Amino acid sequence: MTDDDVELEARLAEQESFDPPASFVDQANVTDEAIYDEFSENWPECWTRAADLLSWDSEYSTVLDDSDEPFYEWFADGDLNAAYNCVDRHVEDGNKNRVAIKWEGEHGNTRTYTYQDLYREVNEFAATLQELGVKENDVVTMYMPMIPELPIAMLACARIGAPHSVVFAGFSADALATRMNSADSEYLITADGYYRRGDALDHFQKAQEGLDNVEHDVAASVVVDRLGDDGFGHELSETQYDWDSLMDAHRGDRVAPVERNAEDMLFLMYTSGTTGEPKGVKHTTGGYLAYTAWTAQSVLDLEPGDTYWCSADIGWITGHSYIVYGPLALGTTTVMYEGTPDYPERDRLWDIIEKYAVDVFYTAPTAIRAFMKWGTEYPDSHDLSSLRLLGTVGEPINPRAWKWYYTHIGHESCPIVDTWWQTETGGMMVTTLPGIGTMKPGSAGPPSPGIDATIVDTAGEDVDAGRAGYLTVNKPWPGMLRTLYQNDERFIDEYWEEYSDPDTDEWVYFPEDGAKIDDDGYMTILGRVDDVLNVSGHRLGTMEIESAIVGVNGVAEAAVVGGDHDLKGEAVYAYVITEDGYAEDEDLRESIIKGVEDGIGPIARPEQVIFTEELPKTRSGKIMRRLLEEIANGEELGDTTTLRNPEIVDEIEAKVSGD
Ligand code: PRX
């Protein structure tokens, strides 16, 4: 580091708040603080402002129908089509030649889709889906890498009113099968493979293994040929079709967008919860699209002329809302990248930002921590002056990482939005608005306009500033999940039971996050308070990992907790009891790791597998996870007096610390 750098770091280390630069405010989409009052005074009618960003086939007459709480409906009697809103209308508005998607493959090969190109491909794939037998309301599963065919397939589904269920390509074959079974999905769109750090990966093999475990008949699968000559030569079966051949047969076909009711399902997205079964979060057409378009405009400050890049994977909600639906609804150019940030070099992301002159960049704290570790020479070797705004999502960002991002990527001239939200919320909920709010590193900011969020204690009373409590949302919002797929009961149990009072008809949404608030109403998110881990910004259930581990031969019992990790935020610690007759050896450790990779995917791979004779349990037989977490973190241990077997704690601790 130069002397200047040292001086800069010292100055920034002291600074606790930052105002958005005047150059940004001058051009921002939202700059008047009165928006907060306007939304709260006119709630719920304020949400027409979001709905007005869309084109409706028939106008809605009510904004919010709350006659059957908590099954809220938004813009309920309006009709619209999401693909029409994300594609056709931009073509009709004279913007057919504007770039919709800029795709960068891992090897540097690129593809550019104008809105006209996207219109053509979405229509042709919609015609293809119809030929395969897909009808309105059939769930179509996508298990695809980051290639343009993924958003094309999503939008083609939206065009014909078939909800999609995208399964992250890094998830295992088992995870694919579980999700297809749960959604009774008879159609799969997948790919032969993709590139990771220079290697061609065989994705079709995994998809095939998943299909083998689907309990019902799968009517058709479509396979994109991503690898060409690098492919693995798999034969397609009678119900498996090559994407290009199907598309060739439908060149020039047009399919009229289906009028969908605002409350019709747009997609399902499976996410982790406290039980072993992933939850099918249901999002609808009108509220979700209005909410993602509105937050993309007000929080990400997107405008049609922008080149915008969200480095998430479309397999997660961030990619759905802020690579595909929000930006395309606004007519922005959205960048998609297939590979990893460190291939071929650690400057790959900065190279892409420079190459496409990206205006707004949205990423995750786990990535920022890796960039910090790699050093400033990588961003410093690129011209990042096109950037106007930076964003983060997925996990808490510590002030040091925030300041690094602000200085070395934003060069002190881009505001940062630290956006708290979830798969279930559909879009951003707690964040500063970049043209208005003072930023405080480490704190996401106030609830967005129209979002009534508070931080309460276990009794539901507001906590004082500075005290830790639980984040709750007291009023519905358009982007919210409507239910868990075919499981209304679990929907109520998981999100509403804790703080609602059905007697007084007060319904409160509980996201299962701990948080605190300061005197200015800024919220700092402290992390999940349920058994959900956040590993590199990826949401994983401890129960899912445990059930993968106990499925391994030789394992009797397992407890999984999260331990602090410099880069990943949290890492998976697995405490395992072996069955009698099985050695606690390297072979078993490897089988356990493989069991987790096969059951969920490599992202859930345990950082450490700790064999133990027993797990610390209370007298009533409950595993004391808190102690296991403290051990993983090398923290001083709390009270062990309620344990049935306190002696085991020292033994486990010695194993983890290596003493
Ligand atoms: O714990 C919160 C954390 O991520 C969880 C939601 O995960 P998922 O549904 O996978 O969606 C991630 C992308 C929206 C939340 O319950 N989280 C998300 N954003 C933040 C965050 N924690 C702290 N700060 C954030 N900005």
Automatic annotation (TrEMBL):
Belongs to the ATP-dependent AMP-binding enzyme family. GO terms for molecular function: 3-hydroxypropionyl-CoA synthetase activity; acetate-CoA ligase activity; AMP binding; ATP binding. Residues 93-477 form the AMP-dependent synthetase/ligase domain. Residues 544-622 form the AMP-binding enzyme C-terminal domain. Residues 33-86 form the Acetyl-coenzyme A synthetase N-terminal domain. The keyword Nucleotide-binding applies. This is Acetate--CoA ligase. Keywords: ATP-binding, Ligase, Nucleotide-binding. InterPro entries: Ac_CoA_lig, ACAS_N, AMP-bd_C, AMP-bd_C_sf, AMP-binding_CS, AMP-dep_synth/lig_dom, ANL_N_sf. Transmembrane segments: none annotated. GO terms for biological process: acetyl-CoA biosynthetic process from acetate; carbon fixation by 3-hydroxypropionate cycle. The gene is acs1. Its EC number is 6.2.1.1. The lineage of its organism: Archaea, Methanobacteriati, Methanobacteriota, Stenosarchaea group, Halobacteria. It is an enzyme of class 6 (ligase).
